Amino acid sequence: MARAAPATARSLVLQAERRFKRARLYFGHGTDNARDEAVFLVFHALDLPFACSDAVLDAPLTAAEVSKVEALVSSRISTRRPAAYLTGRMWFAGHEFEVNDDVLVPRSPIAELILDRFQPWADAEGPGRILDIGTGSGCIGIAAALTFPDAQVDATDISREALAVAARNVARHRVDGRVQLHLADLFPPRERGAYDLILANPPYVPESERVELPEEYLHEPALALFAADEGLALIRRIFAGAASRLTERGALVLDAGGTWPEVEAAFPELSILWVELQHGGDGIGVISRAELARMPLQ
């Protein structure tokens, strides 16, 4: 009787992919298909770089290595937790961040604008002062600081637990001299001054949609996902308070996700530029200070 071929990284990826498809998992937290999710988890369990050779992919694995992969793959299926929470890491704008279930899994399309240096909306030399509202893991503010090494960044969150994660990521990326974290409900104290750019990825999922979401989303902090007023409660407050905290030529970059049509309908007086994204996603709006000045002060 022929002996079974030894397990390899390649064979375990293919096996995990098949199992994920059978289990009908939802992919939307860093990957969008079963194959990429399988690669992410198998490579993490085996501590492999994503750019590894065929020789490494096809090398026989030990029983202990196979067990590590099995534990991670089985946990993904049985718990429906996003892979980022199982591994404790996710990439955003080309940088790796620590994540846990105190913060959203980084996935905002604002990453594309950061990599494009916010052109054509920011000055060519880049913004000098940036505010990141609802920072969570700190990924948006930190990625902006890494892109603009002369910028000073304030980052706010209402969750102490989220700010603890953000603080570790600030230290990890060595931007603690330029990224200041604030426990605050949207905006930091006014004495912090005005900003050239405000970046906001607030909760925008209507409470009514909670029962419709895939189980994976329910592992994320509800405080960071759901908002009252059909998802518009926090966005209203950001619009009302942003103008007085922006410099004359400043702008707000808002991630409204799938709620963007409701935002546009609710604020017909605002001229919001909805960005045509090159790498997927939608709901990223850019609003100038002049437009925001039409809103009543918070």
Order of helices and strands: HHHHHEEHEHEHEEEHEHEHEEH
The chain-level mean pLDDT equals 95
For the record, the CATH class of the largest domain is Alpha Beta
CATH topology of the largest domain: Rossmann fold
Major sheet characteristics? 7 strands, mixed
Distance between the termini: 76 Å
The best one-word shape is elongated
CATH architectural type of the largest domain:
3-Layer(aba) Sandwich
Q: Which residue ranges are poorly predicted, with pLDDT under 50 across at least 5 consecutive positions?
A: none
In percent terms, what proportion of residues is strand?
Answer: 15-25%
* Helix content estimate: 25-40%
How many domain units?
2
Provide the CATH superfamily of the largest domain: Vaccinia Virus protein VP39
Structural class designation: alpha/beta
The side-by-side strand order for the widest beta sheet comes to 5-4-3-6-9-11-10
Key phrases:
Helicase, Ruva Protein, domain 3; Rossmann fold; 7-stranded mixed sheet; 298 residues; alpha/beta; two-stranded antiparallel ribbon
In summary, what is this structure?
It is built from twelve helices and eleven strands. With 298 residues, the protein is of the alpha/beta class.
Question: Secondary-structure blueprint of this entry?
Answer:
Elements: H1 9-23, H2 34-46, H3 54-57, H4 63-79, H5 83-87, E1 89-92, E2 95-98, H6 110-115, E3 129-133, H7 139-147, E4 152-157, H8 160-172, E5 179-183, E6 195-200, E7 205-206, H9 222-225, E8 226-227, H10 233-242, E9 246-255, H11 260-266, E10 273-274, E11 284-288, H12 289-292
Parallel strand pairs: 3-4, 3-6, 4-5, 6-9, 7-8
Antiparallel strand pairs: 1-2, 9-11, 10-11
